Amino acid sequence: xxxWKRLLIGAPIHTKQLSEEKLTKxxxxxxxxxxxxxxxxYATEEILLVLVLIGTQAxxxxxxIAFAIMLLLLIVTLSYRQxxxxxxxxxxxxxxxxxxxxxxxxxxxxxxxxxxYVLTVAVSICSGVAALLSAFPALLPYRVELAVILVxxxxxxxxxxxxxxxxxxxxxxxxxVASIIIMIGFGIWKLQAGNWHxxxxxxxxxxxxxxxxxxxxxxxxxxxxxxxxxxxxxxAISNGVPAFREPSSKNAVITMFWMSFLLGTMFLGxxxxxxxxxxxxxxxxxxxxxxxxxxxxxxxxYYFIQIFTMLILFLAANTAFAGFPQLVSIIAQDGxxxxxxxxxxxxxxxxxxxxxLSVLAILLIIIFQGETHALVPLYxxxxxxxFTIAQYGLIKYFLERKSQQKVWSRIIVVGIxxxxxxxxxxxxxVAKFQSGAWMVVVAIPCMVLLFHKIHRHYSDLASQLSLQxxxxxxxxxxxxxxxxxxxxxVSRVAINSxxxxxxxxxxxxxxxxxxDEKQKERAEKKWKELGLDIPLVTVHSPYRSLxxxxxxxxxxxxxxxxxxxxxxxxxxxxxKKWWHIFLHNQTAFLLRAMLLWRKDIVVSTIPYHLxx
Amino acid sequence: xxxWKRLLIGAPIHTKQLSEEKLTKxxxxxxxxxxxxxxxxYATEEILLVLVLIGTQAxxxxxxIAFAIMLLLLIVTLSYRQxxxxxxxxxxxxxxxxxxxxxxxxxxxxxxxxxxYVLTVAVSICSGVAALLSAFPALLPYRVELAVILVxxxxxxxxxxxxxxxxxxxxxxxxxVASIIIMIGFGIWKLQAGNWHxxxxxxxxxxxxxxxxxxxxxxxxxxxxxxxxxxxxxxAISNGVPAFREPSSKNAVITMFWMSFLLGTMFLGxxxxxxxxxxxxxxxxxxxxxxxxxxxxxxxxYYFIQIFTMLILFLAANTAFAGFPQLVSIIAQDGxxxxxxxxxxxxxxxxxxxxxLSVLAILLIIIFQGETHALVPLYxxxxxxxFTIAQYGLIKYFLERKSQQKVWSRIIVVGIxxxxxxxxxxxxxVAKFQSGAWMVVVAIPCMVLLFHKIHRHYSDLASQLSLQxxxxxxxxxxxxxxxxxxxxxVSRVAINSxxxxxxxxxxxxxxxxxxDEKQKERAEKKWKELGLDIPLVTVHSPYRSLxxxxxxxxxxxxxxxxxxxxxxxxxxxxxKKWWHIFLHNQTAFLLRAMLLWRKDIVVSTIPYHLxx
Lengths: 612, 612
Known about the structure:
Two copies of one chain form a homodimer.
Chain A: H1 2-9, H2 25-38, H3 43-51, H4 62-86, H5 92-100, H6 103-135, H7 143-160, H8 162-195, H9 205-209, H10 214-227, H11 236-239, H12 248-276, H13 287-296, H14 300-333, H15 351-367, H16 372-375, H17 381-400, H18 408-431, H19 433-465, H20 472-475, E1 482-486, H21 492-504, E2 508-514, H22 517-530, E3 536-540, H23 547-560, E4 566-574, H24 587-595, E5 601-609
Parallel strand pairs in A: 1-2, 1-4, 2-3, 4-5
Helix pairs in contact in A: 2-8, 2-12, 2-14, 3-10, 4-10, 4-12, 4-17, 4-18, 5-6, 5-17, 6-7, 6-14, 6-15, 6-17, 6-19, 7-14, 7-15, 8-12, 8-13, 8-14, 10-18, 13-14, 14-15, 17-18, 18-19
Protein name (chains A, B): Putative amino acid permease
Membrane topology (chains A, B): Multi-pass membrane protein
GO molecular function (chains A, B): transmembrane transporter activity
């Protein structure tokens, strides 16, 4: 067990190594930005998938939509620059709201972020598998299995620890970015060389009339909302500031700007090429795969792009493995999630958070059968909700700082950001409500309720366990306990247990169950012969059960000795070979299990190890 | 839990009701004979399945083979009459061999009988399902599922107790016998009325020349061996004599003769009709189903026959539920199987034996995918082996009775039986060796080995637990135990536990694990403020594990306090709502689980129940 654990996740790491585990900008970009960067693999496709419902001619609207989304990205990046500078200790929307808005708002942000981290893993892994399946259609029947295995691999890598993750992940991120940019460059060159057939189609009047219909306007909004999935992950850096090398805020902001720039370039480029080559969304072949095919044919570079797309999406899922455990550990520290989530495992990572995330993501993948398109509608609502909350919090923070000069220019920047992201939140929730966003709309308040229930339990617990107003010296004066020893026969095991019992109490009783009178007489005779000063109580069992009469006797005793502890000493012998356990009835185990829940019963197990 | 148990198997029955649970001849015939009687549902088919390998013309050899098997039945019945009279206390081959031959022979018989009981359940259920599927081919995809469900139903019925079983089962047995006899009568009448086409084919010379080839001779022997499955279950009555009403031996013999007579009549009749109507074995439609179709068409009587065939086979499986638990309880009483198998459950039946049988039968059904033909080759070897052993034992018994007159006529009857069944054992093992009998040939010696290993364990145990040569009064002088209390914080739970610990020992130590120096100082300061006269031991955990440092400390203490008991008192608090357990780490449970296996550690759990 332990051997396998070590093989999989490595030797334990000493606590004092904690501070060494910090990230350079380059590594942090790989770790925290791959989510945002990788969304270029599916964001354009999600836009086209909605537009194609209007008609093939409407696909060209993807270009203005992409520009709108890039504008949104710029606004969010500028806002988040203020957030990183103002709140360098990390935690993002959750912490900002906790400090400057209120409990419920911060918990709402926390719930939204948790949902989005889980979706990041599920969507990225499913999209990565889709990239792989575009290149290798023979693997199509194993979509779900592949996705689940990838999540498990990610889990193991992350349980090994954050620095090793960075090393594993830095390289492919940069290869991906480079190869996509090369693909865009080659693509544009190819289009100029004469393949520019699609965008040349003139804008006919009927296209403009599209807006006249409510249905198509709604579909355009849905296309925009789907494209907004490109922005998920932008907040990851602001949550992860403490993981950066000093000066951590400055490094984080620089990293975020680089990320936004790369994201914008790639997203616009891919959307542009999709239109240039006249790509339409297809089942089982991704849009990026089609573009790569147009640019490079089915040669080496095509497979190279597909594989690195899959790798970057795998890294994107990894973003959540960096962010989610940190977020839940903060929420848990506040007492709104199980305390276990605050504990660093023996590799210094929040192991429980990592496992928790993996289990949730695997569940989602199985439920949605590994289909990216089915998962995307759930995405983005939570992200934009938390963007909005974070910016609202920052505005309140600026307004609160009475002593200092209020920086109105900053407030205006963040205010515009807040209003825009607020509107986008509503658009994503409404436009994708039917196709899945309702689940998120339902889940968030349920989670907030659960957070409160957990918090209530911990505060109840604290008050019940507190020594406030108690005198410990009085409390430890406990009257001696009665000891009961259930025995089945007069054997060495029984005598052994009696010896121990006599050493802890003067009030010891042996207890035996008999099925018929003959048995009783025999037991009493044998007991007399022993000549011990311990009474033997015999209990009759008309229905041949051993446990029930014992429990009934103990019940009665509990009643008469109310307020005192009763010790039940259970002799247990341990066999030498594993299969011998089938040769003994496990009454001792059962009895212990049933007594553990009683109020005033101390259950003691005294072992007797057989020599052979 | 208890509610469902009561609903399924009924209220517990008082021990004194044991003697009332006795069977009349009519009910006993239903319980113990359905195995033998029901084999007419498949025995003819198994013969034809082998003969058809020679050629369609060879099918007519089923008639002389059936006569040979009936002769064998007569011989076995006459032999077993002597066995019942000589050994009225039941147990059959196992007990006879134990008393009069030797330990290994009796264990061999026991193993053979156990295997055959399990096969009785598997074969009968699969054959019953086949009868059902012949009439309702829509159920074909659910062959295995249906078979498994039927075994579970049988298990529940038998857990309810033997008398109720008899009531449930008596009625369909008699209906089955009557309907098969009516079918045979109608069939013969129909054949005489002009449909007698098949048997009219003259015996050509080439058929006789079949015997000239070794291959066909071997196949004829295999056909005979397959048909011998008709005799399985004949011994059930001799094992179940004590369940009969007084005079039990006489009643058992009468019942057995009736059973043999009915079995012979039906088996010959069905084999005769199969030839008369020219029936050939088909996949998914049984031979009996084909005959019933020839006689009655697809009308009401056809379905009636199919359903009652299924019911009798269900009862046949039930035979094993009456015999197997009784057999294993006797073997367990001798110390060769787990003692648990000797215990009567709260409905007075050997519940563990019943469950054991069900599990084994379900495993067989799943492994062999519910195919009767795949299971039959394993069958019969064990039965004939035990027949032979039982008769050998009876002969030795007769020869041992020096004082009384030796009844040579009886010895000759039984001797002939023994020689014939011995030969048949070898024929079944050899002729069906490749198609599955080898498994039984391998399993029997393995089981005998296991029996011995179990026996060895129990006798080792007895000698280790014996008080022979020991002075109990000296043994109970045990020096006081050191008590260790692992605590995580200074809370009411901890103080509570310390109070109890002080009441059982003067040597109490509190133990806490710290991750860094600050934690240690804080804990030590708090402890001093308490002002208790108990030392606090602090243990450092560099890798943030709670369990490992605790276990290491206890290891070291175990070394220094060798020979004395160390009590580890584990405070455990119990939450009010089930989901609260996720909010606490289960260190106490884990610690207890890991300490339970240590030699000199008494593990005591002291409960602290939360009020809310």
